[in-house]
Structures are given as C-alpha cells and as structure tokens.
Design a protein that fits this description.
The chain is α+β, with helices and mostly antiparallel strands. The protein has five helices and six strands. A hairpin with a 2-residue loop joins β1 and β2.
Length: about 170
C-alpha cells in the first residue's frame, strides 16, 4: 500500500485517513461464503478488503498447505483493535476460523488461537456495532432479493415447461 492517505467515503463527506492511522489484518475462513459475509459486515470499517491465500509458503518448498480455506486481508483505522474485530466476528454464526486466525498482517501465520472471549474479545464502540449491524441487515436484504430472482426464474421455467407439454389441438 502506498504511504498516501486513503479516502473513507461517507454520504456527503470524504475524510482523508493517513496510512499511519491504519492497521492491516489477515485471516482465513472455511469458505467464500464466510468471506462475503465478513466483507459486507465490515463495509466502512475495513478498507481494501482483498482475497489472499489462506496459508503462507512452507519452509519445505511447498507453496501452500492443501485446503478449502480462503484468506482475506484488510485495513482498519488503528483504533479498531484485533480484540474488537474478534468480538464482531464472534457474533457471526460459524465464522470461528476467521475469529481464531485473525492477526496483524505482519504476524499472520494461519494458525488458530484457542479463543478465550474474555481474553481475546472486546466490544467495539456502539457506533461501530451499529454500523456492522446495519451492514448485516443490508446483506440480508440483498440475499433475499437474489433468492427472489432465482425463484422467479425457476417458476417461469416451470410455467414454460407446462405450456410446452400441453397439446396444441
């Protein structure tokens, strides 16, 4: 990343954030669905969310351990700590690998910690929680609209299939 500022866009406001005010994190997840959920949830809190390999190169010459896991990295403002991110991620159903593997980018190993919520998790500010909650509701609305589109398409195909099977006389 360049050392220049990053623009954080809010409706009607563009706030410049210098790179010295940012922290980069990395984690791994069981599937791309977890990655999509986390990316939606952290909108406006995390920046430059990027897919990464889940595992680091191995010393034995193999590039990566075989796995279905996917990796992700992102930047946050420095006041959003790993403990706060773990608290947020720990609220998501079945995202335990993301919670347990989250680390500073420079310290990432892909290993999972044995999560002790009282030790590793700390609630973020109420505004941050509200932002993530709003993002999750928007994601649910998006998924609902996608489900409706898929169902409508399937129903149309079924109707056309029924029309094709009717005798024409």
């Amino acid at each position: 990343m360049s050392s220049g500022p990053i623009s954080q866009r809010r409706p009607g406001v563009a706030k410049k954030i210098s790179s010295s005010e940012l922290t980069r994190y990395r984690l791994r997840m069981e599937c791309t669905g977890d990655g999509e959920l986390i990316a939606w949830a952290l909108r406006g809190i995390a920046f430059e969310i990027t897919e990464e390999d889940a595992f680091l190169p191995q010393s034995d010459g193999f590039h990566f351990k075989p796995t279905w896991d996917v990796g992700m990295s992102f930047w946050t403002q420095r006041h959003i700590t790993a403990a706060m991110l773990r608290w947020l991620l720990n609220e998501f159903i079945d995202c335990h690998i993301a919670v347990e593997s989250l680390a500073l980018y420079s310290e990432y190993t892909a290993d999972r910690i044995e999560l002790e919520p009282n030790q590793h998790c700390f609630p973020p500010p109420a505004l941050t929680v509200a932002k993530v909650r709003g993002n999750l509701l928007a994601y649910a609305e998006y998924l609902n609209s996608q489900q409706s589109r898929a169902l409508d398409g399937a129903l149309r195909m079924e109707e056309k299939r029924g029309e094709q099977m009717r005798p024409s006389c």
